[in-house]
């Protein structure tokens, strides 16, 4: 493929170079497989010009090889349901994490390098919860139901939601979460800002959350660690 670059969509991509048998057993080749499962055939020794990268990748070994690269380009759009789910299901301590095990979040805003707010496409399986009942001290949240009928539960009451319904949760307001009590998936968009110095409080659980430079730190309400 000469110096033709690979097509990439997201900010971080892992490329696998896999041995590929050539015709007649000569001119060994490698198959380059990107995260879109697109396969490229190249000869050993070929230099690949990667778009937006400061260096070229030279294919020299006839073996499995992996490289993680950063792409500074951003897509014009993405197909939200096709985005990979967040690898870590929850930041909660294990005693609470199992309560959100039926929740799947697909980050969307990160694909566009958004920094002021985050966007997730979230799916709740039957019996799933969006989070523990909680409120934020400094960050606002917003949800928009796309499919299914999750129940919005707050300190003021409960409401069964339908596609097209939305709800907003200002910082310091009522504690809230969603529960899927139906037998079908519930899918919704969740949007939240990233104001620094945020804390999370949990009226029904012995849990406190503080946003640090390294992410969320969870303790008991008396400050002791889990």
- What number is the mean pLDDT? 78
Number of strands: 18
Portion of residues in beta strands equals: 35-45%
Estimated structural class:
mainly beta
**Inertia-based shape:** globular
- The portion of residues assigned to helices is under 10%
Span of the ends, CA to CA: 54 Å
Using the CA coordinates, give the radius of gyration: 22 Å
Give, in spatial order, the strands making up the sheet with the most strands. 7-8-15-10-13
Number of helices: 1
In sequence order, what are the helices and strands, one letter per element? Answer: EEEEEEHEEEEEEEEEEEE
Unreliable residue stretches: 1-40, 48-71
Largest β-sheet summary: 5 strands, antiparallel
Quick structural overview:
The protein has one helix spanning 94-97; strands at 12-20, 29-33, 39-43, 47-48, 57-58, 65-70, 103-107, 117-124, 135-136, 141-147, 151-154, 158-160, 166-169, 176-179, 186-193, 199-201, 208-212, 215-219.
């Amino acid at each position: 493929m000469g110096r033709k670059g690979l097509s990439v969509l997201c900010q971080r991509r892992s490329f696998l170079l896999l041995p590929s048998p050539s015709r007649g057993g000569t001119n060994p080749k490698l198959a380059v497989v990107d995260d879109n499962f697109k396969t490229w055939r190249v000869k050993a020794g070929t230099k690949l010009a990667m778009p937006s990268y400061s260096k070229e990748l030279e294919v020299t070994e006839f073996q499995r090889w992996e490289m993680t690269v950063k792409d500074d380009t951003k897509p014009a759009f993405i197909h939200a349901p096709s985005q990979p789910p967040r690898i870590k299901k929850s930041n909660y301590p294990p005693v609470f994490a199992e309560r959100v095990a039926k929740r799947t979040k697909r980050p969307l805003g990160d694909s566009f390098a958004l920094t002021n707010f985050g966007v997730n496409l979230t799916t709740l399986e039957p019996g799933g919860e969006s989070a523990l009942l909680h409120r934020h001290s400094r960050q606002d949240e917003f949800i928009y139901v796309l499919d299914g009928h999750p129940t919005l539960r707050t300190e003021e009451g409960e409401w069964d939601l339908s596609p097209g319904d939305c709800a907003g949760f200002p910082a310091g307001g009522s504690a809230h979460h969603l529960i899927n009590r139906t037998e079908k998936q519930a899918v919704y968009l969740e949007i939240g800002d990233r104001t620094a110095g945020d804390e999370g409080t949990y009226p029904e659980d012995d849990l406190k959350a503080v946003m640090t430079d390294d992410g969320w730190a969870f303790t008991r309400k008396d400050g002791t660690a889990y």
